[in-house]
Amino acid sequence: MDTDLNKIPNSLLSLSDPVFEFNKQIIEATLPHTVAYKLNFAFYEARGPQGLVSMERTMQFLNNRAFTIADAKRGDIGNTATMYAQSVFDYYKFNAITLSPYMGVDTVEPFLKYKNHWSIVLALTSNPGADDFEMLETGEGKVYERVIKKFATSQMSEQVMFVAGATRPETFAIIRKHAPDHFLLVPGVGAQGGSLEEVCRYGMNSSVGLLINSSRQVIYASSGNDFAAKAGEQAQIIQKQMQQIMLDKGII
Amino acid sequence: MDTDLNKIPNSLLSLSDPVFEFNKQIIEATLPHTVAYKLNFAFYEARGPQGLVSMERTMQFLNNRAFTIADAKRGDIGNTATMYAQSVFDYYKFNAITLSPYMGVDTVEPFLKYKNHWSIVLALTSNPGADDFEMLETGEGKVYERVIKKFATSQMSEQVMFVAGATRPETFAIIRKHAPDHFLLVPGVGAQGGSLEEVCRYGMNSSVGLLINSSRQVIYASSGNDFAAKAGEQAQIIQKQMQQIMLDKGII
Q1: Where does residue B178 rank: exposed (0-12), middle (13-18), buried (19+ CB within 10 A)?
Q2: Model pTM above 0.95
Q3: Residue A149: closest CA among chain B residues belongs to which residue?
Q4: Model ipTM?
Q5: How many domains does chain A have?
Q6: Which of A2, A166, A242, B248 is deepest in the core (most CB within 10 A)?
Q7: Is residue B61 part of a domain?
């Protein structure tokens, strides 16, 4: 839910909290076809404290009916990380958070102290800039491989997932070598050009192991007053595609 | 200003916004000795939207009387980075923001489009976890060196600063090789054990080139009702040390 005031239907703009109203209707329409909701924090923070109120209301409306991901990409040292964990896990009640690994393992550990919560560590992202540092060769694998190896073998590794971009499906074989059992959060399908089929071919394991994210393709399926219905239809199309792939692979 | 409700004097807790009241008194006492204020976002976000209200009020009270740094360590792709820039630069009116470079140069560019604003990119941080990825050897320098080289030579590089931790002063010579003219934001002096003298010996250039951060040592100089006066004294002590070093080096 990258909910942007400039992209939601005009008819919502006269309401007191258009972002929450949009999210509410999207959730109602997509819930039967959706396993997880990912809220992109930047879109809420851009409007100051009131944007966070929209986020809080969205989380209260969801009320644990689906897995929730704070797409916040935080990454800071111990006591600061603890404060971010309080914000995301205690205050807003998310199940998981995306984290940047740049500063090292000790920046993720405070989040892992929360049982039944997940840390989704950036590994190989879907943007062109991934070449700048993530893809640097270190002698024992590229930087993103070192990230995966470090966290996949760490204590409490079962609470870790990795971000792996759909725009580089050929790298999923490498990622699966280092993290055969971990769940991967896969952005970049749809609007960014990644292919669902290719991601599943290379990235799916015997228990699926993939959380495939499609955001703009779903929430902005229509800019008219039928936005919620169209989002529901789009979510169902993707869910059916995923179901077929899982049937073909004998997973379900 | 890592302002923590659990660390500020009890006498403030009965007020409607204890964090803002603490910040206000700290600012009044330290302003004559301070060039910049760095607000650590995690400490405000931990309390939900009301925490951001305390931040907003703090920024309004400061009202451009000093350089302001959003210590938020954001790092995300283009349209999301644009939203974070809106939040920090347009909404809260900070002059600068700390950014994580993991995802690459394209995650910083949206911030650089704001003229007269600065992006302070994490290079080598002061925590033990810096060894995990920042210090990995890539064949052409360690990861943190590649980060510095990439941004120091990029377009709009004059709006870039780097984070360089005070706990590793011996690396400042390497950092200065790649970024002789850039300003460095240096955390880790004081509570984390870094030495002001060593940082200046290795990191200062002919126009100073250092923003040295001391947070807990100043704001928590006293836990009593004299907290503001003690913070002012502590800020002045550090300012005098810095002034002496600059006199000794012939910079002023």
Answers
A1: buried
A2: yes
A3: B132
A4: 0.97
A5: 1
A6: A166
A7: yes
